[in-house]
Amino acid sequence: IHILNLSMNVLEHIPTLPSSIVELNLSKNLLKDIPDTSIKNLPNLKILDLSCNGIVTVPKVLGSMKLKSKL
Questions:
Q1: What is the C-alpha to C-alpha distance for residues 54 and 44, in angstroms, rounded to an integer?
Q2: Is the CB of residue 48 less than 8 Å from the CB of residue 69?
Q3: How far apart are CA 16 and CA 66, in angstroms?
Q4: Beta bridge partner(s), residue 23
Q5: Which pTM value belongs to this model?
Q6: Which of 25, 46, 50, 52 has its CA 20 to 30 Å from the CA of residue 65?
Q7: Rounded CA gap, 70 and 28, in Å?
Q8: Residue 46 phi/psi, 5° resolution?
Q9: What is the DSSP string of 3-63?
Q10: Are 7 and 23 in contact, with CB atoms under 8 Å apart?
Q11: How does the average pLDDT of the chain come out, rounded?
């Protein structure tokens, strides 16, 4: 899996994801935080969409990744 769209799924937590993901859409869910481990385990991730969630804090690991992200 390289592209995964989990938008509009009423997710409160990020499920375990395959490390092969390059593009991940988690928009329009009920996410409030993103654990560092959820993102660290995605070494190939280039595009991340977290828009339209209730995220309060952004994980530090996002700052060290080369992502095109939407928050």
A1: 25
A2: yes
A3: 21
A4: 3, 47
A5: 0.87
A6: 52
A7: 12
A8: -120, -30
A9: EEE-TTS--SSPPP--TT-SEEE--SS---B--HHHHHT-TT--EEE--SS---B--GGGG
A10: no
A11: 89
What tens digit of pLDDT does each residue of 9-32 get? 999 999 999 999 999 999 999 999
Q: Model confidence over 26-40: pLDDT tens digits?
A: 999 999 988 888 888
Q: At a CB cut-off of 8 Å and minimum separation 6, what does 69 contact?
A: 47, 48, 49, 50, 62
Q: How many CB atoms lie within 10 A of CB 31?
A: 20
Counting every residue written for the chain, the total comes to: 71
Q: Which residues of 5-29 are buried (b: 16+ CB within 10 A; e: fewer)?
A: ebbeeeeeebeebeeebebbbbbbb
Structure tokens at 18: 């395959």
* Rounded-to-integer distance, Cα 30 and Cα 3, Å: 21
